[in-house]
Amino acid sequence: MTSNKSPTTEPASTRRPKSSSGAAGVREFAAEIGFARVAFNLLVVLLLGLLFWTVLDLPPQSAGLHAKVKAHMHVSGVASPITAVLLNFRGYDTLLEIVVLLLASIGCLILRDAPQSHPALAPGRPGKWVLDGMIHVLIPVMLLTAGYLLWAGDHAPGGAFQAGAVLAAAGFLLVLGNRMRFWRTPEWLLRLSLSFGMIVFVLVASVVTILTKNLLQYPENYAGILILLIEISVAGSIGCVLITLFAGHPPVTRTPAADQLWHSNDEPKE
Amino acid sequence: MLVSAGAVSTLVCVGGLLRRVWLTGPIRHTVGGWSSPLGIELYADGLSTALLAVTAVIMGTAGFYVVDAIRHKNGHTEGYDSDFFWPLWFFLWTTFNAVFLSRDVFNLYITLELLVLCAVPLLILAGSGAALIAGMRYLLVAMLGSMCYLLGVALLYAQYDTLSIPQLGALMVSSPGTAAAVVLMTLGLLLKTALFPLHFWLPSAHGNAPAAVSALLSGLVVKASFYLLVRLWFGAFAGIVSVGAGNFLGLLGSLAIIWGSLLALRQQRLKLVIAYSTVAQIGYFFLLFPLVIGGTQLCAPSDRVDWLTMAGSGAMYFMLSHALAKAAMFLAAGCIAHAAASDRLNEVIGIGRYLPVSVFAFALAGVSLMGLPPSGGFVGKWMMLKAAFATNQWWWAMVISLGGLLAAAYVFMVLKQTVVFRLVDIRFYEVPRGMQWAALLLALFSLLLGVSGQVPLDLLAVGSPFSPRAGQGWLP
Amino acid sequence: MNQPTWYALTGVILFSMGIHAFVIRTHLVRRILAFNIMGSGVFLLLVAIAHRIPGAAPDPVPHALVLTGIVVSVSFTAFGLVLLKKIYAKTGKTALIDPTESTSDQTN
Question: How many distinct structural domains can be found in chain C?
């Protein structure tokens, strides 16, 4: 693959002769930065101007849909307006969003290489004691925090995504400390944990659709418990997806040559 | 087994929906029982059901192609045998259905992201370095496009407190914020639709994917973002956009037709010829905008509704038949590449003797691209031509005809190579029969769309968005 | 000029900076970062939109949109980085190469 690739673009300055003075110099200068780039910079400035004008022109005192959300809170099954929008009023968006996460993890699984643990953090390296100590202290706290965030989502900022993110952070720590052998996870377990949230969500959606003849319309009085069920399973799956995204691909080993190669394309485009 | 069950059940559902829309008119469904602006509403009218049906036909047939390719695996399977192929395939199918039914600008944003996250992994299943790079380029373009679109959505919500396209259509007025939103959302969608000069990512993506995936990318994925553009311009933005803006899109479309066709003629690889042909054909879709928007001013008020509906339906008809024809072409190219173990044009010389079915499928699909009767492409182009003359915009008619000639040139360039008699006998790999017939089936469908005449047009007319007052919403 | 307006203006500045870097830069990590900066700009704008009446409770809908948007942007970033690592491992490149080159060496 690498054999036929030659550097396609060199910095403009290396190719063009040095500029003379006067009008010719200006022209040379313009040529050196490149006409397209100047035009693009102008375009971005124009866009910024338009956006500034837009922001200053927006209706200043608008409450948006706040009143509408508030009027329907009592049937939403939760007490936090954001959770109500996420999982009841616009629950369909959230269902699709869970699929987005699942697809990202599938994309990473397609690209995964041969299993290996993180070489930089193999057991017995210096720093092990610090890491181990941190794991002992932090993991229980993190699990507790995740549980709290899940519970808090009912009436305050929090919910499945926040809880899933904290779970994932705990997972990262375990992977870095070599406590979680990500690659030893049986394939079926990995796939089940990644898709569990979506499966539960789709099952709930199907059942309530049959019951109420409306996609994702929760039956009266069951909204709260169904949302909780979805949140718990989704939080778990989000955690697993994020861990897969993180641990599925060990870091590139750093050497001076590799560093140089890594930065070799770090040039502005012409 | 599971695959056929999934495909058949989706086909049955789409058929049921089609029947209901046909019999009772457009349908509205409030998700969760919450009507907009609080909740999300789904709509099914003639255009969306027609797209659902064509999607089902293409996904079903191309799925059959893949099943056959896996069953007779000899040599390379282009990544079809990956564990993740079928999940991605069905997620993609589901996403198409979600795109075509939604009318909520934010929900559509998520569906567009889903589309990319299905399409790019399917593309990189091909495994080559070129496919990885093409996938990366596609991903980056999609990222840029979706962020522009999302900013537009935020600006719309800030001004109108709603995300539903029909409601936006009733509320929108001219303001800097509206202009910024229209520009950003249109730009984002043009990037994803690959309209000239934003087409740079398309040929490498469509030319390097596994053949069945190329069929979906070219046949359906670019149509999804174009469909959204149509919904926005003739729904939400209907009262805002000017004739000049429509003409500008038409101009870019014309340039796409000429530039894409000329580059198609210069390609050395079969799949790249077809990919550049997609760049050109996308240009035709965009003639819709000047024909309808410009037509509003240029033709007499008495017969305005008729001509605008004709221009709109013609362009949509052309899009549907292009979806079928282009998918058929890529599947045929897949068979040819499978047989010759290469899709370079100088290595497939004389392959018609060994693969008559595939080459015939390619030719039939080519008939539709050129716009010769009795194909679906002919009906679409003919309606657009008629509307162009009736609304006194003859210059677009010139572009339409010129594009047909150029399409003929590159289709015959390929056919000449494949049917030429070759003295030196070269071994070709055997191609499973199911793969060949799948390509032919799709080509026949695109032909059938032309001979079925009035039926698809009547379907497209159900709740058509192209009448002058469409911006007021499709439903009472 | 109240506080949310300043946030909104910062948001659109971030967006413009992001779009500039996204197009001008070639290194893929930079471009993926630029995408995230664009995203932050949009999310900041949305949060500002939600809080336009001083003292009143904010509109929850933009907040929900931001949460969804963040998840989408995380997914794209992660997948993009993994793809980048694969491309780097396979071709030694951290930027996109000319399309004519990338398509010419491929047999199918």
Answer: 1
Chain B residue with the nearest C-alpha to that of C73: B143
pLDDT exceeds 70 at position A245:
yes
3-state secondary structure A212-245: HCCCCCCCCCCHHHHHHHHHHHHHHHHHHHHHHH
CB B435 within 8 A of CB B66: no
C80: domain range?
Answer: 3-99
What secondary structure does DSSP assign to B26-72, as a single string? Answer: -EEEEGGGPPTTTS-EEEE-HHHHHHHHHHHHHHHHHHHHHHHHHHT
Phi, psi of A78 (to 5 degrees): -135, 170
Within C2-59, residue ranges assigned H as helices are 3-24, 28-50
From the list A20, C108, C68, the residue with the least C-alpha distance to B211 is C108
Please indicate, yes or no, if residue C84 is contained in any of the structural domains.
yes
Which chains border C (3 or more CB–CB pairs < 8 Å)? A, B
Per CB-CB distance under 8 Å, the chain B contacts of C86 are 124, 132
Chain A neighbors of C62, CB-CB under 8 A: 64
Site from A9, A10, A51 to mutate, C interface, most C CB atoms within 10 angstroms: A51
Q: What is the pLDDT of residue C71?
A: 94
Taking Cα atoms as reference points, which of B275, B425, B290, B447 lies closest to residue B349? Answer: B425
pLDDT digits (tens, 9 = 90+) for A16-57: 344 344 555 666 665 666 778 888 899 999 999 999 999 988
The count of domains in chain B is: 1
- C105 within domain boundaries: no
Chain B residue with the nearest C-alpha to that of C30: B140
Please report how many Cα atoms fall inside a 13 Å half-sphere around the Cα of residue A217, on the Cβ side: 18
pLDDT at B36: 83
**Domain-wise residue ranges, chain A:** 1-62, 66-247
Domain span including residue B205: 2-472
Q: Do C90 and B113 touch (CB under 8 A)?
A: no
Question: Which three-class secondary structure state does DSSP give residue A12?
Answer: helix
Q: Specify the CATH number for the domain of residue C7.
A: 1.10.287.3510
Task: Give pLDDT tens digits for A118-152.
Answer: 554 455 455 677 888 888 899 999 999 999 999 99
Strand partners, B44: B27
Q: Pick from C5, C26, C57: which is nearest to A269 by CB?
A: C26
For chain B, which ranges sit under pLDDT 70? Answer: 74-77, 299-303, 422-426, 467-476
* Minimum CA–CA partner of B125 in chain A: A110
Any CB–CB contact under 8 A between B159 and chain A?
A: yes
- Tens-place pLDDT, residues B254-299: 999 999 999 999 999 999 999 999 999 999 999 999 988 887 777 6
Angle at B96 (CA atoms; ends A198, B222), nearest 5 degrees? 130
